[in-house]
Design brief:
Rossmann fold, binds thiamine diphosphate, alpha/beta, six-stranded parallel β-sheet
Length: 663
Amino acid sequence: MTSREQHDRMANAIRFLSMDAVEKAQSGHPGLPMGCADIATVLFTRFLKYDPKAPHWADRDRFILSAGHGSMLLYSLLHLTGYEDMTIDQIKHFRQLGSKTAGHPEYGHATGIETTTGPLGQGLANSVGFALGERIMNAAFGNDLVDHYTYVLAGDGCLMEGVSQEAIALAGHLKLNKLIVFWDNNNISIDGPVSLADNTDQVARFQASGWNASHIDGTDPEAIAYAIEAARHSDKPTMIACKTTIGFGAPTKAGTNKAHGSPLGADEIAGARKFFNWDSPPFEIPADILDAWRTAGKAGVKARTDWEGRLAKADAKLKAEFERRLAGKLPSNFDAVIADYKKKLSADKPKVATRKSSEMALEVINGAVPETIGGSADLTGSNNTKTSQTKNITPDDYGQRYVHYGIREHGMAAAINGLTLHGGLIAYGGTFMCFSDYARPSMRLSSLMGIRSIFVMTHDSIGLGEDGPTHQPVEHLAALRAIPNHNVFRPADAVETAECWQIALESEKTPSTLALTRQNLPTVRTEFSPENLSSQGAYELAAASGEAAVTIFATGSEVEIALGARDLLEKHGHPTRVVSVPCFELFDKQSDDYRKKTIGNAPIKMAIEAGIRQGWDHLIGSDGIFIGMTGFGASGTIEQLYPHFGITAEAAAKAAEARLHSK
Ligand SMILES: Cc1ncc(C[n+]2csc(CCOP(=O)(O)OP(=O)(O)O)c2C)c(N)n1
């Protein structure tokens, strides 16, 4: 049992590493680590199940620093407990280019960082996915293999962000009782006291959302331990409101916004050294304290080796399946299943909307890949995200595969990231593409982290019709394509949809968005090809009858229009080829040769897409013809809207001919 004095000195090690690292970097946030050091010390020395020597151990407890600006708290903990990659040198290079100690914690930079945080509220919202993932995996593999907690440290900022309400409502509804959130209740944010902008009774708010919540003194180790113990035996998620002082120990800046986000300065740090009676120079931890921390970091070895013993003894099939899923590998027959399905589609030639094609592909995929977890933000019937295999996950049955996220696009996308990061699961969720704006902050983070989150965005253009311009995406394809490391797929028919799903599932380090139509589309890939043509990003779908005078590039629903324009142009004696472009990002990755060949040398290049032009010039050139949208859509039938906005085969053919005649 740690004495109070020992506890204090261990907590002070976090405080000094943090304030000294921020001082050296002349940048960063010392206030949070100084205020929350007691909470972190109690958690990491008495409760958290982890092993720094096996940081990826599947059944570890997860710790998520949602208030990512307090990154030095996490880096200090990782160093002190003995994560090998978090050396003192890394701490000394806090925030420097190339170090693992980035400004905010970044997934993949150092072990022990479970998710990228910094945009406030995201970590808290991810944690719903982590905690749900634990329950789902527990239902599939049992207590022997999956039984861990998810702990979160969130600040006032996390709780003020709107996404926090989506997250806590969902967690409360799903009764994620192994989710435990510490709120750093220090009354301070950047502008000053929180009361400048907020007077919410947070405890009442969490309680109203189905959580346990109570106030404690966040500097009293016994109160913290007591609250964690109670939370671990609760049947609801728990929020512990921890009263703390930002920058605790800084003589004049403690308790003020001056301790939030800038170096304390030499005088304040000297004062803090006096206050805590800490005479070690910067970056030196007294040997007995480092020992105590390293000992705490070894406490999980037994739990980890016991767990490994249970895994070794588990039923061989169960063990193999668990290991496959944790490794993120698809079942070995996956490619064959998709190939068979594509063969059938090319023979059947269905005329269905790509949202329906997506459902048909998912019916095949969900049958073959048991780790997919579907969902929608209250648009299940429209997004076509549910299949025969995916029954509802409820607090009484986590052994199912479908989440009704409610009307919470942002919370859904963040939870999808959490499910993905948890491991063992492939999560997808749907909404209308226009509302990708509501989910975008989390979609961006999935790209930054390089994880396999999948976003199903249906109703992808004016083609949705009567709901009108509030619901018709116009700039969204361009906006999503602007996110680095994000594959935006816009398949043209059922075959391409199956191919795009296949790529999305196989892309372990890149998230995907599937842009899907409401309206029916013919099958354009009528000949079976064993290769996944969509994986090239763009490919020639229809060749010209002679040397091409015109090349038309198109995506999704406009491929049919492009083929219609080609017929007209060919009839008028202008050899025309059509290139389907299901994914810009993948096309950009092809060899120069392939790209040149696919773009071709036709004197007239045209693109047809029912969105804005932005992004297309790199295929058609700035002098290319673009048939698409230049402003918002309108309310009307699809039959009215496409001609109204000039997106028809006739208009396209006319524009090409006008250009041909002017040459
Ligand atoms: C979405 C988002 N908006 C704004 C910021 C900038 N920001 C970083 S910390 C912070 C204040 C957070 O206050 P609090 O959570 O109370 O942290 P503390 O001051 O206690 O460290 C703000 C506005 C951010 N990181 N993320």
